Amino acid sequence: MKIISVVSIKGGVGKTTTCINLAAYVAAMGVRVLLVDLDPQNGVMFGMGLDDYHGATLKDVLLYGIAPGQAMAQTNHPELRVMLAGKFADGDELERFERAFESNGDALGPLMRAVSLGWGFAPQLVIIDTPAGLGSIVANAMTVSDSLVLPVQCEPLSLRTFPQTLKRVMQLKAEKNPKLDIEGVLLTMYDAKMDAVHGVARQVWESFPENLVFETVIPRHEQLASSFAVGMPAVDLSTRSSGAQAYIQLGRELVMRLPEG
Ligand code: ADP
Ligand code: MG
Questions:
Q1: C-alpha angle with apex 4: 51 to 12, nearest 5 degrees?
Q2: How far, in Å, are 127, 140, 217 from residue 20 at the CA level?
Q3: How far is CA 65 from CA 12, 62, 68, 83, 106, in A?
Q4: 123-177 confidence digits (pLDDT tens)
Q5: How many angstroms separate the alpha carbon of residue 156 from the centre of ligand 1?
Q6: Quick check: 39 and 130 in contact, CB under 8 A?
Q7: Phi, psi of 216 (to 5 degrees)
Q8: What does DSSP assign to residue 71?
Q9: 106-110, long-range: CB within 8 Å, 24+ apart, which pairs?
Q10: Are 107 and 98 in contact (CB under 8 A)?
Q11: 26 Cα–ligand 1 center, Å
Q12: 30: pLDDT confidence band, cut at 50, 70 and 90?
């Protein structure tokens, strides 16, 4: 079981969009995938059309001792299950959720070990969506991960904040998780019409070794945003759009690097 987290200090760079499309496409390729949402905003719930799901969630696992196997929502893909962050009754419950990560540097370790045992669905790949920032929720995600996808939106502010993300990744790797790898830096929302885009992309390509930057660049494409209105990842809506095509290509890059079995 390989665990990949999608992480960025800056919000709005395409983390959730990347998670739902990658998870849906890789599952459609026949790989058993568990998508875990650590973001109390619940973007994954909307992206996967799970607004009506009333079963158990990550919140119930962490706060109420529910077994992880009971908190995996089924989806249209037989090979894809989703562990939603959970709907929070009030500020107090949300605070307790966040505190579960603050008080325990390895809140997700036992959960991931339980998930790897199966419960009728032993995932080959776990994809973790994280909230923006580099706080304890994100630190916990990095602590259990094998590798990270690091999205950089093709615009100057995203690039300028990126060194803070990298610094934290290196620090966490040194202190908590020596096996943590960078799966790849992912350029997102590429829009050739915007001048600033080219400089950002060039700088990323020049600053990192080739094997640390995904060959696939995600274009800015309306369908990748509008798909949240209908609750279906773009790769499930139409595989022909350039946005879906890019995530399909990214999915192939990822699957090629998965261990056998
Ligand atoms: P994050 O999870 O990093 O906060 P999101 O995936 O929620 O980022 O994306 C932020 C916003 O940008 C959302 O409104 C989303 O629909 C939109 N978006 C993300 N990726 C693209 C893209 N490639 N093209 C167009 N819109 C995008
Ligand atoms: Mg998000």
A1: 55
A2: 9, 20, 16
A3: 32, 6, 9, 15, 16
A4: 999 999 999 999 999 999 999 999 999 999 999 999 999 999 999 999 999 999 9
A5: 16
A6: yes
A7: -70, 130
A8: G
A9: 106/140, 106/143, 106/144, 107/62, 107/140, 108/140, 108/141, 108/143, 108/144, 109/143, 109/144
A10: no
A11: 19
A12: very high
Can you read off the two tokens belonging to residue 64? 């109420």
Name, in order, each residue with C-beta under 8 angstroms of 15's C-beta and a sequence gap of 6 or more: 6, 7, 8, 129, 130, 132, 151
CA-wise closest residue to 8 among 185, 178, 147, 202: 185
Q: Give the H or E element holding residue 91.
A: helix 91-102
Token look-up 């890019």 returns: 246
User: What's the distance, CA 98 to chain centroid?
Assistant: 18
Backbone angles phi, psi at 182, to 5 degrees: -95, 115
| CA contacts within 13 A on the Cβ side of 67 | 9
Provide the angle, in degrees to the nearest 10, between the axes of the packed helices 242-256 and 15-28.
Answer: 70
Lining residues, ligand 1, CB within 6 Å:
8, 11-17, 43, 132, 188-189, 218, 220-221, 224-225, 228, 243
Instruction: Assess contact for 127 and 25: CB atoms under 8 A.
Output: no
CA 61/CA 76 separation, integer angstroms: 23
